[in-house]
């Protein structure tokens, strides 16, 4: 849909719990505690990757990790037992936001480009807060919908 080359663009993966996150990334105890305190939620954590990352991440040193507060997404990832690659849809400036938040309109606009559209109710059009966790202390590199809790 986005028309990007996944081998050349930054993508994130969606994991379903902390153990699946630790399978695909390297993190110290401070980072583990920070992530545990803030998931599930509207965050993308940038972490060093492991060799267990999906093939599209080969030769990359880092990966964005998401665990959204959405039971449908988490259940799909849990049932598949592998992370999902995630990228947000670009919303053109003049486009009605509802086409990116209303499942019926999403199906109308993109239904012929995907295998399935799941109606989980009206969504939000909000960016995640991106947190660079490659070193400590972690650093917010884009403030989005999530308010990061740093306390231990």
Task: Report what the structure shows.
- The chain is α/β, with parallel strands linked by helices and 152 residues long.
- Helix content is 23%, strand content 16%.
- The chain contains four helices and six strands; from the N terminus they run βααββαβαββ.
- A six-stranded mixed β-sheet has the order 4-1-3-2-5-6.
- β5 (129-132) and β6 (139-142) form a beta hairpin.
- It is globular, with a radius of gyration of 16 Å.
- The model has no long low-confidence stretch (mean pLDDT 90).
Show the helix and strand layout.
Layout: E1 12-14, H1 18-24, H2 29-38, E2 43-48, E3 62-66, H3 71-80, E4 84-86, H4 103-110, E5 129-132, E6 139-142
Parallel strand pairs: 1-3, 2-5
Antiparallel strand pairs: 1-4, 2-3, 5-6
Approximately how much helix is present in the residues?
A: 10-25%
What can be said about the biggest beta sheet? 6 strands, mixed
Dominant shape: globular
Structural class: alpha/beta
Instruction: Give a count of the beta strands, DSSP E runs of length 2 or more.
Output: 6
Compute the separation of the termini in Å.
40 Å
Strand arrangement across the biggest beta sheet? 4-1-3-2-5-6
Order of helices and strands: EHHEEHEHEE
Hey, roughly how much beta strand do the residues contain? 15-25%
Radius of gyration: 16 Å
Low-pLDDT parts are none
Overall average residue pLDDT: 90
Structure annotation, total helices: 4
